[in-house]
Amino acid sequence: MLNFGQKIKKLRTDAGLSQAVLAEHIGVSVQSVSNWECNNTMPDISQIVPLASVLCVSTDYLLGVGFDEKADQETLVRNVNTVWANYSVNTREDNADLLAANLYKEYLRKYPADYEVKYKCALALYDYLLVGKARGKFHIEASTYESIYTQCKSMLSSVCNNTSGIELQIQANQLMIQLMLLDDHFDEALHCVEMLPTTCGIKYTAQSQVLYVQKAIGKASKVKLAADKEKCLDYLKALYESVNFGVYEKDKSIPILEHAESIAKMAVSLYLDATSLEVNSYEKMPYCYLITAYTMQCNTNLLNHDYDAAYKALGKAAKAAREMYVWVKGKTENKEILADYKFFAERTPHWAFSFSGMYSGKENEFTKSEQYKNAVEEIKKVLYA
Predict the structure, then answer these.
(1) Rounded CA separation 182/126 (Å)
(2) CA torsion, points 174, 177, 182, 185, in degrees to nearest 10?
(3) How far apart are CA 15 and CA 188, in angstroms?
(4) Per-residue pLDDT tens for 230-273?
(5) Cα dist. 304→49, 291, 301 in Å?
(6) Single pTM value for the model
(7) Separation of alpha carbons 382 and 379, rounded Å
């Protein structure tokens, strides 16, 4: 738990205030603020109310008086739901967004470190600006707009810089980008884009939105395509990992892998891109995901003792491996890249049985079969042509 000095410092920095600015608002010296934060002295009783007001918290919170957080959360949710049920966001008077934001602000005066509520408050403020400015439902005076814009930006900065929740941090960054785009602050928006992860196309999606607003439609389309590819391939990874870790019941594994097969086929048709060809770039290659769908089907069918289905999946895997190598060979003359994909294709038949755990040696019932030998030979014809 923070002591008084730590609390003052955190609230001040969270609000983006310097010691000098805080001192000016309270009417004290910078040294006084420094002494408070170092726990050398305490504010005078007459300074507590203005201090709490500037820092947007209650005097009870500042002085460490206890609260019933659970009861206050329940009350907040109930009151916000009442607002949404009875008011509209399309009018300036009794605007639902502003009414909800005020409820959130009052709650935050007691619990300023509740970053989920702070994000919700910022979202309500942003929606008010969006409906008024971008959708033209009502007029917002310039001074009011600037004040709400600054509040929203400050709250989102606080969430981004302080929350320990990765998902909430991403949401706050994404909303900050939308806020920047309201006033065409493209450089600031792109700075926020750099804070986002590439997972599931999150970063590329945000970047494409900025480019679209900038009217760079061609670039936006290319980046959006990259975002879609990331989402698609990450989805396939999630499916494969879930099957490998036994997340689903065994009887559901084959339908899931068949679903993955259809998604991987779509990825091959949409997202093959020679610019992503690098050594060990399997995670960017849609064909690798298609081959994985087939080899995992083969492994799973072997475990279920369904050899006909296993051999069928093996044949599909071998065909995809051949197609992949031919495509790569047609796109690059880089010997290292060719050798890398040659290795992947050549190992495909082995992967079709090895992860089932049924066979430990090279020579076994599966590898002795005509279907297995044919798959190996068909791949070699392409690799060593």
Answers:
(1) 9
(2) 180
(3) 19
(4) 999 999 999 999 998 888 887 889 999 999 999 999 999 999 99
(5) 72, 20, 5
(6) 0.73
(7) 5
